[in-house]
Amino acid sequence: MFMGEYRHNVDEKGRMIIPAKFREGLGQSFVVTRGLDKCLFVYPHEEWTKLEEQLKTLPFTKKDARAFTRFFFSGASECELDKQGRVNLASPLRQYAQIEKECVVIGVSNRVEVWSQSMWEHYVGESEESLAEISENLMDFDL
């Protein structure tokens, strides 16, 4: 399980340190793709395979299913850690998430998310304002 929040920088070559606490769970190679809310989703291969199987069950005759599947898979990239625990984030992924230098790496249960620091701070600010309403909407899930 991934959890926690870490702040890092992306260097001029697009490399970013993966927090040491996440490296074992991700393994030597993993998948990075465009996520929701303008962040990047990072999946260990086992979780990526599970997600891939779920997405395969979506009806390709539905426009929304095709659009989501295209969005998710076309942005995916297999990545590997270098000897210093860094990953090279592809330029299109960095552009999508608006990551230039400062970023935030967070653990979200079965995946890791990478955010530009400014987008993360904006997201947290907005979410804090509506957290009570969000938690009420999730009451049906016995949280």
UniProtKB/TrEMBL annotation:
<dbReference type="InterPro" id="IPR003444">
    <property type="entry name" value="MraZ"/>
</dbReference>
<dbReference type="InterPro" id="IPR037914">
    <property type="entry name" value="SpoVT-AbrB_sf"/>
</dbReference>
<dbReference type="InterPro" id="IPR035644">
    <property type="entry name" value="MraZ_C"/>
</dbReference>
<dbReference type="InterPro" id="IPR020603">
    <property type="entry name" value="MraZ_dom"/>
</dbReference>
<feature type="domain" description="SpoVT-AbrB">
    <location>
        <begin position="5"/>
        <end position="47"/>
    </location>
</feature>
<keyword id="KW-0677">Repeat</keyword>
<keyword id="KW-0238">DNA-binding</keyword>
<keyword id="KW-0804">Transcription</keyword>
<keyword id="KW-0963">Cytoplasm</keyword>
<comment type="similarity">
    <text>Belongs to the MraZ family.</text>
</comment>
<protein>
    <recommendedName>
        <fullName>Transcriptional regulator MraZ</fullName>
    </recommendedName>
</protein>
<dbReference type="Pfam" id="PF02381">
    <property type="entry name" value="MraZ"/>
</dbReference>
<dbReference type="InterPro" id="IPR007159">
    <property type="entry name" value="SpoVT-AbrB_dom"/>
</dbReference>
<comment type="subunit">
    <text>Forms oligomers.</text>
</comment>
<dbReference type="InterPro" id="IPR038619">
    <property type="entry name" value="MraZ_sf"/>
</dbReference>
<feature type="domain" description="SpoVT-AbrB">
    <location>
        <begin position="76"/>
        <end position="119"/>
    </location>
</feature>
<dbReference type="InterPro" id="IPR035642">
    <property type="entry name" value="MraZ_N"/>
</dbReference>
<keyword id="KW-0805">Transcription regulation</keyword>
